[in-house]
Amino acid sequence: MKVIEQVSLMQSIGKDALRPLVFVPTMGALHEGHATLIRHARKLATQNGTVVVSIFLNPKQFNVTKDLELYPRPFAADQLLCQQAGTDLIFHPSVAAMYPSDTSIEIEEKDLSLSLCGASRPGHFKGVVTVLTKLFNIVNPDQVLLGEKDWQQLTIARRLVRDLNFPIEIIPHPTVRESDGLAMSSRNARLSPLERIEASKIYAALKKTRARTIEGESDVSILLASTRRDLEAISNATIDYLEVVDERTLIPLAKVLHGTTPARLLVAVKMGETRLIDNIRLAEKISINFPT
Ligand code: AMP
C-alpha cells in the first residue's frame, strides 16, 4: 500500500491505474464502518483493479470551527485500517495542496442541499460538493462508494455526477452499526458514557417508526409525533431535524405509500455537544429507481 500526498502524482497514477478503480473518500478517524466500505471496494475492484481511499479532513465542509478542531486525526491507525481492509493507495493531501490560497471557484448544489443538514450547517454541502468534484478529477475513479448513513450527501453526490457528467458510478453502502444499533461515526468517541448508552435509542426510535408503517400507519404527521416523543425521551438529546422525505428527491412527504414512493425517515440529534445523524427506509419491498 502506498501513501500519496501530491495532487499531481495522484492524478497521473489515477489515470494509469489498473481498472476498475474503486474510490472511498473519507475524512479519516476511520472505524469499522469505513473498513466495511473499503472491503466492499476491494471486492468490486477484484484483485486486478485498484482501491483508492482518500483521507482528507476538508475544512470547507465545517461551518463550526470547534467541530473541525475537535475532529480526531489518528493517521497511523488509519493507515493500518486501510491496509488491512485491502487498500492499494491512500491519497492524503494537505489543505494547502487542495486549496491554493487564491482558490476562487467552488461548486454549489442549489436544491437538495437546502434542507435537513444543509439548513442547520450553512455552507456544508458547498464544501462537500467542491471537494468531491476535486477528488473525482484527481483520482479518476470508475466507482465511488458512499455510506447510506449520510443519506443527503449520497443523494447530492448522485446529482453531482449526473449534472456535471462525471463518468462515475456512485455505489451506496448500507449503514454499519454498533451491536446496539448506533450508527458508527467518528463523532461517537465524543459521547460521554451515559450519552453513548442513550444514543442507541435513536435507531430504536427509527426502527419503531418503520414497524408502525409496516403495520399500516401512513400519516406522516402521526408517525413523526410519536418518533419525536421517543427521541425527546432520550436524556441529553435535542432534535435538530426529523423528517420523512422521498429518498430520491428529499422532498417531504405527507403519506408513506408502500409500493410507489420510497420514503425515508431522516434525523439529526444533538447529544450534549455531539451532533449525530441517522436514517431508515420506511416503505419496504419496493424497487427504487434513482433518476439518472
Ligand atoms: P466520513 O469520513 O465520515 O466523511 O465518511 C466517509 C464515508 O464513509 C462516507 O461515504 C460515509 O457515508 C461513510 N460512512 C461513515 N460512517 C459510516 C457507517 N457507519 N456506515 C456506512 N458508511 C459510513
Give me some keywords for this one.
Rossmann fold, 292 residues, Pantoate--beta-alanine Ligase, Chain: A,domain 2, 2 domains, alpha/beta, three-stranded antiparallel beta sheet
Question: What's the quick description here?
Answer:
With 292 residues, the chain is an alpha/beta fold.
Explain what the structure shows:
This protein has 292 residues and is α/β, with parallel strands linked by helices. The protein folds into 2 domains: 2-173, HUPs (Rossmann fold, 3-Layer(aba) Sandwich), CATH 3.40.50.620; 186-281, Pantoate-beta-alanine ligase, C-terminal domain (Pantoate--beta-alanine Ligase, Chain: A,domain 2, 2-Layer Sandwich). Helices cover 39% and strands 19% of the residues. It has helices spanning 7-16, 32-45, 65-70, 75-85, 95-98, 116-120, 124-139, 151-163, 193-215, 220-232, and strands at residues 2-4, 21-26, 50-55, 89-91, 143-147, 169-173, 237-246, 263-271, 274-281. Strands 1-4-3-2-5-6 form a 6-stranded parallel β-sheet, sandwiched between helices. Helix 7 packs across helix 8. The two termini are 35 Å apart. The mean pLDDT is 95. Adenosine monophosphate (AMP) binds at residues 26-27, 33-34, 37, 146-147, 149-150, 173, 175-176, 183-186.
